[in-house]
Amino acid sequence: MIRASSLSLKRGDREILRDFDLEIQGHKTLAIIGPNGSGKSSLISALVGDLVAANGTVTIDEKPLADYSRSDLAKVRSVASQHQRFSLAYRVEEILNMSITYSGDTESISRSIDALDIHGLLPRKVTSLSGGEQQRVSIAMALSQRAKYLFFDEPFSAQDVESTERITSHLQELAAEGRAIVIVAHMPQSELSWCDQIIKIKKI
């Protein structure tokens, strides 16, 4: 379980989240929604160890987040960022192979490729891809790791209906297998009915 207790976050001098509590459990899919500027992406960054909270604590499996090394964190959680951009012209296949340095294997890579139907992208240089294609590669990288906790920041923002359905279906499969799935979404709650829990964050 990941537990956030009395979490407060700041962006510069402005407080964007105050005294926030959250529990993330396996076998569950959690969607975090809210208006722009409410701190959704910052919350994800704090939960995965990329942002230091102004106040409060985060624990992963009862161990304080601050006690994890970067390599240990990579073994228990994976993240697909909304704004990830690839600057080096590696082939997609190479990118995916590099994504499993700490956790994952060729089987998990193959499964993510099948789930997202990105076979045709494998020989292409990642810098030549469209925004939606790059986003699917980023998601596949996160899925290729055998992490217990999976975080996705706006995973559907650049996807068409078919790709969204593929991603959604695979996330449901992983949750059924015991993974904890957390997504930040900017869409109506009616389109997130497949999630086990929806949390709406209000802008301060």
Task: Kindly report the average pLDDT value.
Answer: 93
Low-confidence stretches: none
What form results from the Cα inertia axes?
Answer: globular
Largest sheet: 5 strands, parallel
Question: How much of the sequence is in beta strands?
Answer: 25-35%
**What Rg is obtained from the alpha carbons, in whole angstroms?**
16 Å
Q: What is the element layout, followed by pairings?
A:
Blueprint: E1 2-11, E2 14-24, E3 28-33, H1 40-48, E4 55-60, E5 63-64, H2 70-76, E6 77-80, H3 92-98, H4 106-116, H5 131-144, E7 149-153, H6 161-176, E8 180-184, E9 197-200
Parallel strand pairs: 3-8, 3-9, 6-7, 7-8
Antiparallel strand pairs: 1-2, 1-4, 4-5
Written overview of the protein:
This protein is an alpha/beta fold and 204 residues long. Helix content is 31%, strand content 26%. The chain contains six helices and nine strands, in the order βββαββαβαααβαββ. α4 packs antiparallel against α5. The longest helix has 16 residues, at 161-176. It is globular and about 45 Å long. The mean pLDDT is 93.
Question: What can be said about this structure in brief?
Answer:
With 204 residues, the chain is an alpha/beta fold. The chain is built from six helices and nine strands.
